[in-house]
Specification:
6 strands
Length: about 160
Protein backbone atom coordinates (compact mmCIF):
# COMPACT_ATOMS: atom_id res chain seq x y z
CA UNK A 1 0.00 0.00 0.00
CA UNK A 2 2.86 2.38 0.66
CA UNK A 3 4.60 1.72 -2.65
CA UNK A 4 2.33 1.39 -5.66
CA UNK A 5 5.06 2.56 -8.04
CA UNK A 6 4.30 -0.37 -10.37
CA UNK A 7 0.91 1.27 -11.04
CA UNK A 8 0.89 4.38 -13.22
CA UNK A 9 -0.70 7.67 -12.18
CA UNK A 10 -4.45 8.01 -12.81
CA UNK A 11 -4.79 4.32 -13.63
CA UNK A 12 -7.67 3.03 -11.51
CA UNK A 13 -11.36 3.87 -11.49
CA UNK A 14 -11.71 2.63 -7.92
CA UNK A 15 -9.75 1.09 -5.06
CA UNK A 16 -11.22 -1.21 -2.42
CA UNK A 17 -9.20 -1.30 0.79
CA UNK A 18 -10.69 -3.87 3.16
CA UNK A 19 -9.20 -4.35 6.60
CA UNK A 20 -5.63 -3.57 5.69
CA UNK A 21 -5.04 0.06 6.67
CA UNK A 22 -4.94 -0.92 10.36
CA UNK A 23 -1.87 -3.05 9.61
CA UNK A 24 0.13 0.08 8.77
CA UNK A 25 2.05 2.12 11.32
CA UNK A 26 0.55 5.59 11.84
CA UNK A 27 3.33 7.33 9.88
CA UNK A 28 2.64 5.03 6.90
CA UNK A 29 -1.06 5.89 6.59
CA UNK A 30 -0.54 9.25 4.80
CA UNK A 31 1.92 7.55 2.44
CA UNK A 32 -0.56 4.78 1.55
CA UNK A 33 -3.45 7.23 1.11
CA UNK A 34 -1.25 9.40 -1.12
CA UNK A 35 -0.48 6.34 -3.24
CA UNK A 36 -4.19 5.48 -3.47
CA UNK A 37 -4.91 9.07 -4.50
CA UNK A 38 -2.12 9.07 -7.08
CA UNK A 39 -3.23 5.91 -8.89
CA UNK A 40 -6.91 6.92 -9.04
CA UNK A 41 -8.28 8.54 -12.18
CA UNK A 42 -9.59 12.10 -11.70
CA UNK A 43 -13.15 10.78 -11.23
CA UNK A 44 -11.96 7.78 -9.22
CA UNK A 45 -12.95 6.82 -5.71
CA UNK A 46 -11.71 4.82 -2.76
CA UNK A 47 -13.69 2.50 -0.49
CA UNK A 48 -12.07 1.85 2.90
CA UNK A 49 -13.30 -0.44 5.63
CA UNK A 50 -11.48 -1.06 8.89
CA UNK A 51 -12.10 -1.74 12.58
CA UNK A 52 -13.89 0.92 14.60
CA UNK A 53 -11.87 1.75 17.71
CA UNK A 54 -14.72 3.69 19.28
CA UNK A 55 -17.05 0.67 19.24
CA UNK A 56 -14.24 -1.60 20.39
CA UNK A 57 -13.38 0.67 23.28
CA UNK A 58 -16.95 0.51 24.52
CA UNK A 59 -16.50 -3.24 24.88
CA UNK A 60 -13.14 -2.76 26.58
CA UNK A 61 -14.68 -0.31 29.07
CA UNK A 62 -17.31 -2.99 29.79
CA UNK A 63 -14.39 -5.34 30.62
CA UNK A 64 -15.08 -7.57 27.61
CA UNK A 65 -11.58 -7.41 26.10
CA UNK A 66 -11.26 -11.17 25.74
CA UNK A 67 -14.95 -12.07 25.30
CA UNK A 68 -16.31 -13.05 21.91
CA UNK A 69 -17.69 -10.00 20.10
CA UNK A 70 -18.71 -11.93 16.98
CA UNK A 71 -18.14 -15.19 15.15
CA UNK A 72 -16.14 -14.98 11.93
CA UNK A 73 -15.09 -17.55 9.36
CA UNK A 74 -11.81 -17.71 11.33
CA UNK A 75 -13.66 -18.46 14.56
CA UNK A 76 -14.60 -16.33 17.57
CA UNK A 77 -13.29 -12.77 17.52
CA UNK A 78 -12.78 -10.78 20.73
CA UNK A 79 -12.04 -7.05 20.98
CA UNK A 80 -8.38 -7.86 21.71
CA UNK A 81 -8.16 -9.55 18.28
CA UNK A 82 -9.56 -6.48 16.56
CA UNK A 83 -7.35 -4.08 18.51
CA UNK A 84 -4.03 -5.88 18.12
CA UNK A 85 -4.54 -8.50 15.42
CA UNK A 86 -6.04 -11.96 15.23
CA UNK A 87 -4.30 -13.88 18.00
CA UNK A 88 -4.82 -17.33 16.49
CA UNK A 89 -3.35 -16.29 13.14
CA UNK A 90 -0.40 -14.57 14.80
CA UNK A 91 0.25 -17.60 17.04
CA UNK A 92 0.46 -19.67 13.86
CA UNK A 93 3.32 -17.44 12.69
CA UNK A 94 1.32 -14.95 10.63
CA UNK A 95 2.66 -11.84 12.32
CA UNK A 96 1.55 -9.73 9.36
CA UNK A 97 -1.89 -9.97 10.99
CA UNK A 98 -0.76 -7.58 13.77
CA UNK A 99 -2.52 -4.23 13.90
CA UNK A 100 -0.32 -1.16 14.31
CA UNK A 101 -2.91 1.55 13.97
CA UNK A 102 -6.58 2.27 14.40
CA UNK A 103 -9.33 4.71 13.54
CA UNK A 104 -12.55 6.25 14.67
CA UNK A 105 -14.90 7.56 12.02
CA UNK A 106 -13.63 11.09 12.68
CA UNK A 107 -9.95 10.16 12.30
CA UNK A 108 -10.53 8.01 9.22
CA UNK A 109 -12.44 10.78 7.46
CA UNK A 110 -9.90 13.43 8.43
CA UNK A 111 -7.04 11.22 7.17
CA UNK A 112 -8.79 10.95 3.81
CA UNK A 113 -9.38 14.71 3.61
CA UNK A 114 -5.73 15.37 4.56
CA UNK A 115 -4.67 13.02 1.74
CA UNK A 116 -6.45 15.32 -0.73
CA UNK A 117 -9.74 13.56 -1.33
CA UNK A 118 -12.31 16.18 -2.32
CA UNK A 119 -15.41 14.43 -1.00
CA UNK A 120 -15.58 11.97 1.88
CA UNK A 121 -18.57 10.15 3.37
CA UNK A 122 -18.50 7.46 5.98
CA UNK A 123 -20.38 5.58 8.63
CA UNK A 124 -19.85 3.46 11.68
CA UNK A 125 -21.42 0.03 12.19
CA UNK A 126 -21.05 -0.35 15.95
CA UNK A 127 -22.64 -3.80 16.00
CA UNK A 128 -20.05 -5.02 13.46
CA UNK A 129 -17.19 -3.05 15.04
CA UNK A 130 -16.28 -1.56 11.68
CA UNK A 131 -16.06 1.68 9.75
CA UNK A 132 -16.81 2.29 6.09
CA UNK A 133 -15.68 5.32 4.12
CA UNK A 134 -16.04 6.45 0.54
CA UNK A 135 -13.57 9.05 -0.71
CA UNK A 136 -13.74 10.72 -4.12
CA UNK A 137 -10.75 12.25 -5.82
CA UNK A 138 -12.96 14.81 -7.53
CA UNK A 139 -15.61 17.01 -5.91
CA UNK A 140 -19.03 15.35 -5.71
CA UNK A 141 -22.27 16.47 -4.16
CA UNK A 142 -23.71 14.77 -1.12
CA UNK A 143 -26.32 13.14 -3.39
CA UNK A 144 -23.65 11.83 -5.76
CA UNK A 145 -21.68 10.41 -2.83
CA UNK A 146 -24.87 8.85 -1.44
CA UNK A 147 -25.56 7.19 -4.79
CA UNK A 148 -22.01 5.81 -4.93
CA UNK A 149 -22.27 4.63 -1.33
CA UNK A 150 -25.53 2.80 -2.02
CA UNK A 151 -23.87 1.02 -4.91
CA UNK A 152 -20.49 0.17 -3.40
CA UNK A 153 -20.78 0.06 0.39
CA UNK A 154 -22.36 -2.62 2.56
CA UNK A 155 -25.75 -2.01 4.17
CA UNK A 156 -25.79 1.70 4.81
CA UNK A 157 -27.45 2.60 8.09
Amino acid sequence: MTDLSAIPDSFADAIYSSHNIEHLYPHEVPVALAEFYRVLKPAGFLVVTCPDLQSLCRLVVEDKLDEMAYLSAMGPIAPIDVLYGHRQAMAAGNLFMAHHNGFTLKTLKSSLVEAGFAAVEGFQRSENLDLWALASKSPRSHNEMSDLAKEYLVAIP
